[in-house]
UniProtKB/TrEMBL annotation, chains A, B:
One of its GO terms (molecular function) is pyridoxal phosphate binding. This is GntR family transcriptional regulator. SUPFAM superfamilies: PLP-dependent transferases (SSF53383), Winged helix' DNA-binding domain (SSF46785). InterPro entries: Aminotransferase_I/II_large, HTH_trans_reg/aminotransferase, PyrdxlP-dep_Trfase, PyrdxlP-dep_Trfase_major, PyrdxlP-dep_Trfase_small, Tscrpt_reg_HTH_GntR, WH-like_DNA-bd_sf, WH_DNA-bd_sf. The keyword Transcription regulation applies. SMART domains: HTH_GNTR. Keywords: Aminotransferase, DNA-binding, Pyridoxal phosphate, Transcription, Transcription regulation, Transferase. Pfam families: Aminotran_1_2, GntR.
Length: 471, 471
């Protein structure tokens, strides 16, 4: 055993013995050198090893912090939404979350679905964009191909192959973010008045598409470990004329679970049996904490009934609005819908993302983000366990950067948010994630960005206020 | 009178006397110096004066060419579409035009709605984009405000004031191109099965929205000088349950007319009387050949029933996908529709366009493009008069860069296009501009880009082929 390995082992044992808990500061490099009688480079190597094993986290200009795999003591309960088709409401609340408040700079937005945009591994993307625009020719300023940039289609097909999802570049249409992919898919499959089955809780952006299209949402109970209940879905398919099943089976937003592969396979079989289409939102799929990343439902799709929707908004940056859809047998209709909705997508952002992937920057960035988000998940769970009232249900995310909490009592998180706003804090109330405003006692947190003392103070304050409202 | 003015006058007289016709090459600088016994700088000043008066056009590395205001000998006839609501067809033909053929580099695309992307006055835009991306911070990579960049909203409001259209920045929502503006407006106002009145011929992109939404188009007869027939529209409003009037009243695509102000005002009164909304497509409006630019219908809108749609795709570049809509009283519903369709628009392209306008580059670019397109209009009309069979109806565009031809016989322009493809030529067949595929004997040409010998040869070849098909 090398010297640095011995030092790492010593530290790991202390963490496992509980001498350091998640978020506690570990000895400085200097202190470690002194204590263990080793060189600076050996101490640094030991910490790098602990980072690799997920037992320590480096925070820039601050030092190393302990990490233990904190699994939540209490999970959220299996959801029990009303099992009948409902009109979607909640737009006012969604608007408040997404419109970008004028005071956002002063607000600590703990609930939005935004990745870490300060990551050093993003820098090549901005360099690529600057270079492309500096040297742009008439073609780069013109409309792009309607289906998308050929090179980006190719790179996406290559990426998806990593999860056994074999797509031809022609199967992929580039969109203006995942929101357009979902919107085109739903509009292609449905007419006003139709019923769409959704996992519940469900991403509010999709719910609002249902509202705008005059569709009804049939919310299906969901297990916080395994996802949508296939049993409940089957009953619903027998009972209602469901036109499409819309769900986020991998690194779910907001619950964080990844459906086991066998259940994904069973879901496809069920959809075949009832001849219904599946809209799969995979926007967080590349941020799964396991390698290789989990398979998509699309990868089990034998007859083109799955429309796979995704984007680079969570894995890279949202502000470029580069998304895509693989619409299976519905390709021609979705292409028409794309043409009438926005025409060709913006030209150079597609090229920049394609280059970023082709040159290996994307996979490097993903590795770094997955490491960071996995650490942050454990820290955030530890903070919630420390600062929220006992009995709070906490999700156990298998990827991504979102945490879902179920409060142990009838706290109204919309009202909570109003009180938090006075202190420049903001969470995403759970009612956004339901057609009918259920889950008002739940909330979503974001742990993407560096978990600074200000963030911990914010989480503590939310927890305190929840306790006040409960008492 | 200065010496250069005297030389300019001499040349102008020769042009007016018909010694030089539009498109004929004028004497070189050297020849003019020799002939008139003046210096090079005097000869150059004389040609600059002729450019200002619209009697000569400079072509880079080629010399000066004569221009006379060629008004077409024969205008297209007033259109007579079927005056009953129809389902929209023609998607296959539109797809062929817009999908971006693999062989496009070798094709001479004479029919697409693309501006000149090589203009020197565009360069500051690419510099702004490169600079913005090089220095981008997390905010620039994030989702933008849902309604749009504040600064861009402000600049658009300022631009529109030039045509007496008073908008508050909050009245304006930024979209992904004009196509999204039109799509959001139509989807906000209508439900499947509804009837929408359109000027006929009408932009195929809008017609395809009707198709995708399951709407019916009621095509209203249109005069190639004054636009939609208010008399026919009034009859239609009495007869059918029309939900919206969609039209392009300024620098119309494809017919090129600008509706007189009095008729724009009358149209608003008519819409008020029947309580129907107006969707005004103004995408070519800033390219009008008169100064100040013509007023929008929106500028006569007293009660917020006009949804004004536009973009920088024709005045600047299409590939950035920056458009906007001023939805009047429908603002909140259109904002919801925008959220569900694509979410916030891409962040930095909005900032770049706002800067381009704020620093005066936009107005400089417009001046240059208007001068160029006005010259090109006259040249293109002269070419068509020379190379097409007698009796060809030619539009008289009041702005923009599109020319509409009505052939003097039953030539099927879809078949014409198939024959042209073999010779790497492509026009936009008129049937694209009708719900039911009327106007097959019409076609649209583009005169935006430099009118090189290759373009003239293309136009001549199209004219020859038309003559062959007629005989």
């Amino acid at each position: 055993m090398k010297r640095y390995e011995r030092v790492a082992q010593t530290l790991a044992q202390r963490i496992e013995q509980g001498l350091y808990r998640t978020g506690d500061r570990l000895p400085s490099i200097r202190a470690l050198c002194h204590e263990q009688g080793v060189s600076v480079s050996t101490a640094q190597a030991a910490y790098r090893r602990l980072e690799e094993t997920g037992q320590a986290e480096a925070r820039p200009r601050s030092g190393y912090y302990a990490l233990t795999r904190t699994t939540p003591g209490v999970l959220p309960r299996v959801t029990r939404p009303a099992q009948r088709p409902l009109d979607v409401s909640q737009w006012d609340q969604v608007l408040e979350l997404v419109r970008g408040a004028p005071a956002e700079d002063r607000m600590l937005m703990l609930g939005r679905g935004i990745p870490d945009l300060e990551a050093a591994t993003l820098r090549p993307l901005q360099r690529l964009l600057a270079t492309l625009y500096r040297g742009v020719d008439a073609r780069g300023l013109n409309y792009d191909n309607l289906a998308g940039s050929r090179e980006l289609q190719r790179q996406i097909a290559r990426l998806m192959a990593a999860s056994s999802c074999l797509l031809h570049p022609d199967d992929i249409l580039i969109t203006t973010g995942c929101q357009e992919a979902l919107s085109l898919s739903l509009r292609t499959l449905t007419s006003p008045g139709d019923v769409v089955a959704v996992d519940s809780p469900s991403f509010y952006g999709t719910m609002q598409i249902l509202k705008a299209q005059g569709l009804k949402a049939l919310e299906i109970p969901t297990d916080p470990r395994t996802g949508i209940s296939l049993e409940a879905l089957e009953l619903a398919l027998e009972q209602w004329p469901i036109r499409a099943i819309q769900l986020t089976p991998t690194c779910n937003n907001p619950l964080g679970y990844t459906m086991p592969e066998s259940r994904k396979r069973d879901l496809v079989a069920l959809a075949q049996r009832f001849d219904v289409a599946i809209i799969e939102d995979d926007i967080y799929g590349d941020l799964a904490f396991t390698s290789p990343r989990p398979r998509t439902i699309k990868s089990f799709d034998g007859d083109g009934r799955v429309l796979l929707c995704s984007a680079f908004s969570k894995t890279l940056v949202p502000g470029l609005r580069v998304g895509w859809v693989a619409p299976g047998r519905y390709r021609d209709q979705v292409l028409h819908m794309k043409y009438v909705s926005t025409g060709a997508s913006a030209t150079l952002p597609q090229r920049a993302v394609a280059e970023f992937v082709a040159q290996g920057y994307y996979e490097r960035h993903l590795r770094e983000m997955i490491r960071q988000y996995r650490c942050h998940r454990d820290v955030m769970i530890a903070w919630v366990e420390r600062h929220f009232p006992p009995g709070t249900g906490i999700s156990d995310p298998q990827g991504g950067f979102l945490l879902w909490l179920e409060l142990p009592g009838a706290v109204d998180c919309v009202r909570l948010n109003e009180r938090l706003a006075v202190e420049h804090l903001h969470i995403a109330p759970g009612s956004l994630f339901s057609a009918s405003g259920k889950y008002r006692h739940c909330l979503r947190l974001n742990y993407a960005s560096p978990l600074t003392a200000r963030v911990e103070a914010g989480v503590r304050r939310v927890g305190e206020m929840v306790s006040e409202l409960l008492s």
